[in-house]
Amino acid sequence: MKFFRLTWCLGLSFAASTCLAQPNPVPFVNQPLVPAAVAPSGPEFSLTVNGAGFLPTSIVNWNGTPLATTFVSAGKLSAVVPAANLSSAGTVNVTVVNPGPGGGSSNSVPFTVIAPTSSLVFSTLPVTGTTSPISVVTADFNHDGIADLAVIDQAAAPSCNYQNHGVGSIAIFLGNGDGTFTEHSTLCFFDILGEAPEPLAVTGDLNRDGNIDLIATSGSFGSEEQLAIYYGNGDGTFTGPFATPVQAAGTAMAARALALTNNYFQNITGLALGDFYGNGQLNIAEGETDGFGNRGVLLLPEYDGVSVDEPFVAPGPLSAGDFNGDGVLDLADGNSSLWMFLNAGNGAFTSLPDVPFGEGTGQIVSGDFNGDGILDLATTNGNSISVLLGNGDGTFAVKAGQPTSAQTNVGLITADLNGDGILDLAVIDSTDAISIWLGNGDGTFQAPVDTTGRGDGVVAADFNGDGRMDLAVTNSDLAAVTVLLQASGPAPMPTFSPISPYSGAATMVAISDSEESPTITYCTSNSGTCAPSIAYTTSISFGLSGPTNICASANASGYWQSATACWAGTYVMPTCGNPSQNLPFSGTYNVPPTPLPMIITWTNPTAGCVLHYTTDGSTPTASSPTYPAGGLSIYSTTTIRVIAAGPGYNNSDIVGGKWTLNLPTCGDPTQNAPYSGTYKVPPTTLPMIITWTNPTAGCVMHYTMDGSAPTASSPTYPAGGLSIRSTTTIRVIAAGAGYNNSDIVGGKWTIK
């Protein structure tokens, strides 16, 4: 049934030629593009663009650059994307441009040049500058090719200076291209008694000047709500607010100051943008209820000739798209049931029977969720979602088999989040948790995976230009706007020091990663690779008992988990370094001038080894005496042999040397009286005292009386002489440290 119609030339001040010119429609592009993503450095391919309002003269633009375009139908175009456009990862804005009169550029749909991933990991970046943010929209407000943000804030900015107790403002944040934002300008709402912002907001080029405009909503004391329209200046600033759309520049239609609300207006339930009349002018589709429970949808600008034959039964959130494949924009209204309104192309709509799908919803999104080229719809439904697959004629069927979540879901958006060319969902639940529902490509979705984001509003865009779709989230409870940057790829694999493969002695193995503040996990094994699970905090000991393998992976902000890197070590028993002589080196020394004792020291090059020695010419071992720490004192010619040994080490080579000392010789002792000979007793008295003279001060006399040869170990000759009472043979030698022994001298004292 028709419920409103617009006749354009009646009662308006356009010239007749303008009416007869039949201006071209503003094109509209559906999600997703086909394909919606390709890997970098791929070959040339054909891009299919589905939507509405296409003409034989329509051109597909790739970041503003025209592509060779083929017209298929009013709802489908094909364009050739050269391989040169795919040289690096990134996100491309794809639009369709219709020539004048009317016409102009469509909405922008992202195309990602990126390899798909099965792992979604987000890092968080705060966006400061708001007090109580309740929703957010994204667009390029300053023509730099970077997504910007418009954040609806329930708190009034100081610059608004409301006089009638109004609150609220809109903060414009310009993207820096790296996921961060700079607050650029502030927009104020109408200064009406108790005016406060509402979450609904959309963007588009309303006045067709090439700049993105912003449409928000506000209300007074929870009763009357109205639009607040801001016209973009192309530099991130805006003019407004206006209560109704201003006609495109260059026409005779002046801005209407008449507010859309009246004393009976209660609530705006949905907003959608599109050229529903096919006249080159974007319209605002506004779902509303009034104070008497009447419900309907208005198309704005509101001109003479609008008639409403029947109100919508249950208006809710709105979604625009070509749902019956005729190349003309239709409207979908979802609020526990789907209400479909098919557009004849001139603003005359026909309503179709509703399709119940479950509990009431706060949002509805359109996209081709099963890859058949026909627009579908998705909306929240209790603790699940409802997907309504389009049949291509404006009718729909509910797709069963959707997963569930723990909480009631209250909002959602759609985008290809993992780069596989299939639309996914980001869903907000009643606890403000945000989860990702990855599409399977058949209209069903995988079980939700929670993100770290929490909020009451969410949008998707590639905020850092890496080809991955990111999220921006508002959270009024936490007074926060947060950007969830999707990981652009795996974190760099960890590296090891010493490098792998390692063959050598015991060591400490350090693990590091090139990213700042990485989280590294590792595992050890003596029998091959393993799965990292232990948090790495300090170097790992490698030795005789292993481990022979250390495996590690890393994670860092902005990345997902790296691939696993493994280190392999082969333990080789180290060998003690050979000891080396210090001064005085082995050789021949004259004494004097060389002082005694000579202190012989050795350098031990290996900390884990100990020096052992012999001086008798035998082979030293680890059981031989430990070499004295202060060195070995020698007084005479000495051969020293040394080895280094230690636990966990092979012994060093045996080294050594001979220190030949040319020493002075003790003078021969000389007899004193009574000299050796025969003595008769009496007259000789007993005992006889036998003495010797020692001519060398550094020597000591030693003796024997049994005829054996005296040595330095023999008894020391008594200082007062030796007493004898019978025949005695005395043999004497002089010896001393640092001296050669004297000759052996002696005599026989025969007593009769």
The fraction of residues assigned to DSSP E strands is 35-45%
What is the CA-CA span between the terminal residues? Answer: 167 Å
Computed structural class: mainly beta
Q: Estimate the helix proportion, in percent.
A: under 10%
Low-confidence stretches: 1-19, 247-265, 303-314
Number of helices: 1
Largest sheet: number of strands, sense, barrel closure: 6 strands, mixed
- Average the pLDDT over all residues and give the rounded result: 87
Radius of gyration, in angstroms, nearest whole number: 50 Å
Shape: rod-shaped
The total of beta strands comes to: 64
Summed up:
With 752 residues, this protein is an all-beta fold.
Protein model, in words:
There is one protein chain. The protein is built from one helix and 64 strands. The protein is mostly beta strands and 752 residues long.
Essential attributes:
six-stranded mixed β-sheet; 752 residues; 1% helix; mainly beta; five-stranded antiparallel β-sheet; rod-shaped
How do the strands and helices of this protein lay out in sequence?
Layout: E1 4-5, H1 16-20, E2 28-29, E3 37-38, E4 45-52, E5 59-62, E6 65-66, E7 68-73, E8 76-81, E9 90-98, E10 104-105, E11 109-113, E12 122-127, E13 133-139, E14 148-153, E15 169-175, E16 181-188, E17 195-204, E18 213-220, E19 224-232, E20 238-242, E21 265-274, E22 283-290, E23 295-300, E24 307-308, E25 318-321, E26 330-334, E27 337-343, E28 349-351, E29 355-356, E30 364-367, E31 376-381, E32 384-390, E33 396-399, E34 409-415, E35 424-429, E36 433-437, E37 449-454, E38 457-461, E39 470-475, E40 480-486, E41 495-497, E42 502-504, E43 507-512, E44 519-525, E45 534-535, E46 540-542, E47 549-555, E48 565-571, E49 580-581, E50 587-590, E51 598-600, E52 602-603, E53 610-614, E54 632-634, E55 638-645, E56 655-662, E57 670-671, E58 677-679, E59 688-690, E60 692-693, E61 700-704, E62 722-724, E63 728-735, E64 745-751
